[in-house]
Amino acid sequence: KLHSDLDKGVGTVKYTLSGDGAGTVFTIDETTGDIHAIRSLDREEKPFYTLRAQAVDVDTKKPLEPESEFIIKVQDINDNEPKFLDGPYVASVPEMSPVGAYVLQVKATDADDPTYGNSARVVYSILQGQPYFSIDPKTGVIRTALPNMDREVKEQYQVLIQAKDMGGQLGGLAGTTTVNITLTDVNDNPPRFPKSIFHLKVPETSHVGSAVGRIRAVDPDFGKNAEIEYNIVPGDGGNLFDITTDEYTQEGVIKLKKPLDFETKKAYTFKVEASNLHLDHRFHSVGPFKDTATVKINVLDMDEPPVFSKPMYTMEVYEDTPVGTIIGAVTAQDLDAGSSSVRYFMDWKNDVDSYFTIDATEGTIATNELLDRESTAQYNLSIIASKVSNPLLTSKVNVIINVLDVNEFPPEISIPYETSVCENAKPGQVIQIITAADKDLSPAGQRFSFKLSSEASNKPNFTVHDYRNNTAGIETRRNGYSRRQQELYFLPVVIEDSSYPVQSSTNTLTIRVCRCDSDGTIQSCNVEAIFLPVGLSTGALIAILLCIVILLVIVVLYVALRRQKKKDTLMTSKEDIRDNVIHYDDEGGGEEDTQAFDIGALRNPKVIEDNKIRRDIKPDTLRFTRHRPPAEDNTDIRDFINQRLQENDVDPSAPPYDSLATYAYEGNGSVAESLSSIDSLATEADQDYDYLSDWGPRFKILADMFGEESYNPDKVT
């Protein structure tokens, strides 16, 4: 309620209200000043309102007092229950945890005013989940309440948590949430075989490495805690089998390590041990985390193919052995109780197998064609044996046949077939070591012998020294050799082998005489080198050749300079080449007169000097600069003359050198005929030179000089 001291209660004062919520939340009686709330208030929405009130005169509308400000505070009541903003919750705790093991902390919030009363004071409690878990009423921490909770017994727990305000007193508001708790696995259970004896039946034809059976131990744990390792306990039959773990099913897979034979042994017994890979030291006291079972394997009798007496056969035969000669035999037996007969045949792979045949009953192998060791030294055959009672049961064996050599080829000297000897060689000097090669397959201990042929043994030039290790040395027998007397020597060497029958051959070794230095290093073996001076070394010869080359270069340069000097005398270095045409005392004969000057000066445009002022013409004040593009040395004379002709056509200061444009050609005379006054019948005064004006700009100056018209520079083009 608002009231002014100036209000006498006669209705002359009017009260007004402004500020937060004026007119919408709060209203004022203009006469009495009573303030009313026109709708319900929510402290959680707006805890206070700031308003301004004023008393004004009803008649004049003027304020009777200054505007006053006041605050309306909303008083809190318990109208909000606690809420779990993060619920529902998911948590986990290891199985077998002790009492009081931490699981999770939950938190509820209350929107009421925590500073006023107990409206926001929250207390936690468990409505569902006892006696397994407990909760702290103030902090909301959930802990285990029972010891040794086993995941294998129960894995999932659902706990219902309540949060109540007003300190949990009667009349307080409450909120709930759910906590789903999972017990995680620990390795607290050893593997156990469901039975103590496993019986397996294995056919005797099972392949080595194949799986012959599976056994399994059960471990109630989960994940890596349930991983099992299987091992065979050493004992009877354990060396024929192996066991591995299937990582997906955790089963023990028994595999065969060696072949089985029903006729040799019909049953095997051994023990298998199963143990955990990952152990937990907290549970060692429970007992050993492993278990043992017995495995009995019965071998089943099967109809097996024949068995060869050897895994592989090796035979030998000499080359050129007559066709049909037996070189060996293979043997296979049926080890089954019925003992069926065996038949043999060859596994044809290629045409090479046709060199041999096999007896189907006895298994003897004989030659079918003549053999040549030099063509094929070894044959690899595949022999198949099958049972008569069951031809589908077959076995295969490889037979290697080595073709033995018969000494039919003589030995030959290995490369090189040519060697050299120095002119200054001394007697007994070894100039070459030779070896021999034989196309035959040399047996162990075969040796080659070397000697000179009978016709060469009497010559005093060279000899052969056999070192008796399949090598020999060529030695000199005299002091010095001369290339001028004999450049090549041919030495016949006889080589014999030690096989039977003995084979020998005569090989010719070419020996070339060469010039060497004092150390025996070869300097020259060419035929041309024979005629060189004996006393000159290679360095001296090179120096002589260099001197000759230098002299030739000097001569060539001298001749070139002489030619250049002759060309320079044909023209004056400080005058234009056309001065040769202008400055003469005799009148020329026109275009056909080629003796007036050297035409070669025109063919060498480089001697022309640019911007040369002509001496036969008086310079005029009107001069056009003449630009002469440079000509290359190999420019065709036709292009050069045409270029000069074009320059003179457009240059009014150029003299009337008709001959410059056509010097490259031998003509029959100028179109304008001769300009000479010789043989002219009329005198100079009687002649009419007006026709010079019709000849073009090249004769403009002559027309101005001899004509009646005066020179007009404006007409020059």
TrEMBL record:
Its main location: membrane. InterPro entries: Cadherin, Cadherin-like_dom, Cadherin-like_sf, Cadherin_CS, Cadherin_Y-type_LIR, Catenin-bd_sf. Pfam families: CADH_Y-type_LIR, Cadherin. One of its GO terms (molecular function) is calcium ion binding. One of its GO terms (cellular component) is catenin complex. The chain crosses the membrane at residues 530-561. GO terms for biological process: adherens junction organization; calcium-dependent cell-cell adhesion via plasma membrane cell adhesion molecules; cell migration; cell morphogenesis; cell-cell adhesion mediated by cadherin; cell-cell junction assembly; homophilic cell adhesion via plasma membrane adhesion molecules. Residues 4-84, 85-193, 194-308, 309-413, 413-531 form the Cadherin domain. It comes from the Eukaryota. Keywords: Calcium, Cell adhesion, Cell membrane, Cleavage on pair of basic residues, Glycoprotein, Membrane, Metal-binding, Phosphoprotein, Repeat, Signal, Transmembrane, Transmembrane helix. It is found in: Cell membrane. It is a single-pass type I membrane protein. Cadherins are calcium-dependent cell adhesion proteins. They preferentially interact with themselves in a homophilic manner in connecting cells; cadherins may thus contribute to the sorting of heterogeneous cell types. This is Cadherin-12. It comes from Irena cyanogastra. The gene is Cdh12.
